[in-house]
Design goal:
alpha+beta; 5 helices
C-alpha cells in the first residue's frame, strides 16, 4: 500500500504498519486519528522516523543527542529478541565508520519497555503496550529492518528478528484483545 492511499479502511487488512525513516510526517500528522484507530484495534505500528510532528500516540518528538558521534555508543539488552546475537560493535559501526544507526533519542512514554539506549541512558528504541490497545515500537531514526541488510555483520539479523517479533507480538496482542 502506498502512503498516500492510507485510510483506516485500507489499513484494515494489515496487522502492522512499518513507517520508514524518510517519511512524509505532515501527511501522517493529517491522518493521526487513523493511526490511533489502527492501534486501538490491537494492531502494531513500527516507526523509524525522527518525529518532528506528534502523529504517533504517546511519543515525544525526536531529540538530537548532545553526544558527539564518536562519544556516543548504542547499547542493547543481549537477550532482547530484536537484538539477540547482534554485537555492540555492529550496532555502532558500519564498514568501520561510527554513527550511521542513530543520532537521536526519544523520551519514552511511562511503562514503555526500553529495547535500545545510548551510553548516556537516553532511549533509542522503545516498545509501548500501554498508550493504546495495540503496540508501538518506535526507533529514533533507527531502521531495524534495513540497517545492515546488505552487510555480512551481525546487524543483518535485526531485520529478520524484527519481522519475527512483529508476528509474535501481533498474535499475542490480537488474541489478548479478543479475550478482553
Amino acid at each position: 500500500m502506498f502512503l498516500y492511499d492510507m485510510t483506516i479502511d485500507r489499513l484494515a487488512p494489515y496487522g502492522a504498519l512499518i513507517v520508514p525513516n524518510n517519511i512524509d510526517e505532515e501527511f501522517l500528522y493529517q491522518h493521526r486519528d487513523s493511526i490511533a484507530q489502527f492501534l486501538e484495534q490491537g494492531r502494531i505500528v513500527v516507526s523509524f522516523a525522527q518525529l518532528f510532528l506528534p502523529w504517533l500516540p504517546g511519543n515525544s518528538l525526536w531529540i538530537r543527542s548532545s553526544l558527539d558521534t564518536n562519544a556516543r555508543t548504542i547499547l542493547a539488552h543481549d537477550e532482547h529478541p530484536l537484538f539477540r546475537g547482534v554485537t555492540e560493535y555492529d550496532l555502532n559501526y558500519r564498514r568501520g565508520v561510527k554513527g550511521f544507526f542513530s543520532r537521536g533519542y526519544f523520551e519514552a512514554p511511562a511503562h514503555a519497555e526500553i529495547a535500545l539506549w545510548d551510553n548516556s541512558g537516553q532511549t533509542v528504541v522503545y516498545i509501548d503496550r500501554h498508550t493504546t490497545r495495540g503496540t508501538i515500537l518506535a526507533g529514533a531514526g533507527t531502521d531495524l529492518l534495513a540497517y545492515g541488510l546488505s552487510d555480512t555483520t551481525t546487524a543483518r539479523r535485526m531485520g529478520q528478528q524484527l519481522l519475527a517479533w512483529i508476528d509474535r507480538e501481533y498474535n499475542f496482542v490480537f488474541t489478548t484483545s479478543i479475550r478482553s
